[in-house]
Target: Pyridoxamine 5'-phosphate oxidase family protein
Amino acid sequence: MNPAHAQTLRDLLRTQEVAALGTLHAGQPYVSMVPFAMLPDVSGFVIHVSKLAAHTQDMLASPQVSLLVVAPRSPDVPAQALARITVLGRAAQYAGGTEDHAVAKAAYLARFPQSEDLFGFADFSLFVIRPDSIRFVGGFAQARTLSPQTFADVLSDR
Model:
């Protein structure tokens, strides 16, 4: 990945706080909105969701999910050229009281400190989406598929 695209990817995930989450809902595609944070080792996307939401039940029934993060619209960039990533991965619920939960919670609250109260609600839980593959589009006709390791290396600026 060239340095400009690597920086675009880092900027995209640093500045965008919301992703479209694709799940399987009663055998049909279902897309919802979720705020997300990254684990400190950039190995997964942390989401904090309610059991009352359809996407939570969907992830429990079928952990294969997709996330889409898109750069904001800019007047000088055609919509088709907006930087974006599509993540194909597996969602796993993190049980409270575990070290993994504590790490994920800290990452989430570092990005969304206003969400602290939601952690007191019994119906909310943390999920981490671990990527299997990442499709990065750095602009028009500038797409490439990244392995989880390459993705982590780019985000860690290695």
In short: The helical segments are 3-15, 54-61, 99-111, 148-155. The chain has a mean pLDDT of 94. The two ends are 12 Å apart (CA to CA).
